[in-house]
Every structure is written in C-alpha cells, then in structure tokens.
Amino acid sequence: MENIQFSPAIARALEEMGFEKLTEVQEKSIPVMRSGADLVAKAPTGTGKTFAFGIPLIDSVDVSLNETQAVVLAPTRELAVQINTELSKLGKYVEGLRTAVVYGGQPISKQFKALKPAPHIIVGTPGRFMDHMGRKTIRTGRVRIAVLDEADEMLDMGFFKDVCKIMDRMPKEKQLCLFSATITREVMDLMWLYQRDAEEIEVKPVEESRPKITQYSLYMRREEKPAALKLLLKTNQYDSAIVFCNTRGMTARLCAELKRVGFSAEALSSDVNQQQRSRIMDAFKAHEFKILVATDVAARGIDVNDVEAVFNFDIPDDNPYYLHRIGRTGRARKEGVSFVFYDATESARLKDIIRCCKVEINPVKLLPDGTLEPDGTAK
To answer: What is the pLDDT of residues 16-51, one digit of tens each?
Structure first.
C-alpha cells in the first residue's frame, strides 16, 4: 500500500481490520476518484470494490458541514446494508462522520431518524431513495460524488428511469463513478448522459483469487429432485448449505419438506419481510440452522464466508445468476462444492450456461448410498 497514502483515521481502521494489501481495483480506482474525474470501473464481484470507492468517498467528506455530500446506489437491500456496514468500519475513527442506509421493505418512518441530521454519506436502493427525495427527507443539492455499485445489475432490474431521476436532482458538476461487472447497453447510456470524459479501468479475475468450487450436474426427472437433495444433504452432513429455487412457492414447499424429515432449514424469498429476512440471515451466519432455501434474492450481496455447498434445485433463468449462486461458496480462500439438478426440459439451458459462463461442470450419477460417480451418458 506504499503507493497510496491514507489519512490517519482510515489507516487506523484498515489496520484494525487486518487490511494488508490493496487489490487491483483499489489501486486503480482510488487515485482516479481522488483526482475528481468520473470513473467507469469494470471489475468482477469479490475484487474489493466497496473499499475502492469507500476510501475516497470518506476522504472527500467535510464532517463540519451538515449536508449530504456523497451517495451510493445499490441494486438490492442486502448489498446496500453490506456497503453501509463496510463504510461504517472504514470511517470508524473519522470523528463526526455520519452514514445512513435506506431501502425498501422496512417502514419508511423508521428511516427518518437516521436521516436527521443529514448524513454525510447515504447508501440506498433507487426506489426507496426516490421515496425519501419526494418527502424531502433526503436532499441531494450538495452531493459532490455519486457511486453506482453493480450498475449493470441495477439497470437490468429496471431502475434506469429512477437512477436518471436521482442523477437529475444532483448538481451537474458532481463526480459520477460506476462500478460494474459488465458494460451493458444501459450502463453505456448512463455514461453518455451523465459522465464527462470518464476514465475507464478494467480488472480481470486473478486466477489465484477465483473461488475453488467443484461443480457437479445431475440429470434426473423433476419429481426425483427432492429425494436427490435429501440424500446428498444426509450423506455429506453440511454445516452450511444454500439451496436455490426459481420461485417463492417452490422455496416454501421445499423448505417445509426438508423440515418435515428433520433437516434444520429456513426459507428466504421476497415473500419474507425485511425484518424477518435480516433475522434469518443473522441466524444463518451464526449457524443456528444449516440449510437456507432461497430464491435469487439471496444470490447477491450476501456476505457469508463459510457456506460449504450450493444446490441449484432449479436452473436459473439468467446465465449470470448461476455464477452469483455458486459464488456463495468457496469464499475466503476456502473450497466449496456446487450441484445443479436438471431434467430433459432444462438440458439446453444447462449447456447454454456452460457455454456462456465458461464453467466446467462435471456430470455425475447419484448412487443409492449417496456417493457420486461420473456419468458418461448425461444429456
């Protein structure tokens, strides 16, 4: 970290967190953001993007001013909460620094107190941020820096118009920094509309930092999937596993079936309110139950380092979500395993995922004793 200097307060926080070396995206992004230039950073998940924009954001804040000076928008409430937590850790020793997070699913009245006096940095999801702007509980007239994290995902979720409305309510001379795994058409449109001579950086995944995940596929009839899941869970006795389904209904039914036969499981989907969702995630992290059955609401922005296995009970509808799902395991330099169940109607989808995501998935058969053997006849 000898090439980049930190304020004593941030240096103290980084040391306390055991932070030793900057990642590539941090080395490239921090000087650009400190220079005041607009930025487009193309970098995969897990490369340290929060600190890449968090450090210069905190550096830029004048804590003597009672006004919001920086805004971070994120696609999901889970990611927004995670970013705010990391910013709070980074700014722990910056006296007087105020941060807040706003997101849907929590009563808006509960967020009013956190917004008085005006936080220096606000993290939020676009919809709830818009609500607060409409109520004048968030004022953006003094914002100097805006950051869009996982911009491609946010715009793909249909937030383009909301993001534009938020940008339009900020000073035109603000600095806008986009962090995105891919540069989609919508991201390019936003760049064209709101950035001026933006500097572009790209960070490719480093082989050593790639999650070590052994991936298996199991071909079976749809009605065989629950029995196969139970057999694998029983045989391997995972202390922490996530099972992904495509629908809320399947999530609830499968979780109920696992509980019925004695597994320690909870369900997480958009049917679960934010307070309950937070309780479930805290309990999962604390190992109060072993199996989380979830829709893709849990695939992004969930920071759990010791998930041993991921099961794709249903094949995801969008290819990137396969990577987001299996990326919940094999974190923090640990090894993980993932399984994808598929039937005849899903065979083409699996082949498309393998081709587009450039992943190596090993076809296997599940034997009656719960062991696996290579499947040379897989479709």
So the answer is: 888 888 889 999 999 999 999 999 999 877 778 999
For 284-343, what is each residue's pLDDT tens digit? 988 899 999 998 875 555 667 788 999 999 998 877 788 888 888 876 667 889 999 999
Alpha carbon of residue 117 to chain centroid: 29
Three-state SS at 113: helix
Distance of CA 236 to CAs 175, 230, 239, 240, 372, Å? Answer: 50, 10, 9, 11, 11
Other beta carbons within 10 Å of 173? 8
Report DSSP state, residue 196: S
Q: Are 177 and 204 in contact (CB under 8 A)?
A: no
Can you give the pLDDT at residue 205?
A: 65
The two counts, helices (H) then strands (E), for the chain are 14, 15
d(C-alpha 145, C-alpha 175), whole Å: 5
Helix, coil or strand: residue 335: strand
* Residue-level length of the chain: 379
C-alpha dihedral sign at 115, 76, 247, 234 = negative
273 pLDDT above the threshold of 50: yes
Tokens of 35: 């220079």
Burial degree of 81 (CB within 10 A; 0-12, 13-18, 19+): buried
Q: Are 65 and 119 in contact (CB under 8 A)?
A: no
SS3 286: coil
DSSP 231: H
Sign of the Cα pseudo-torsion (365, 368, 371, 373, in order): negative
Q: Is the pLDDT of residue 208 over 50?
A: no
Give the count of beta carbons closer than 10 Å to the beta carbon of residue 227.
Answer: 11
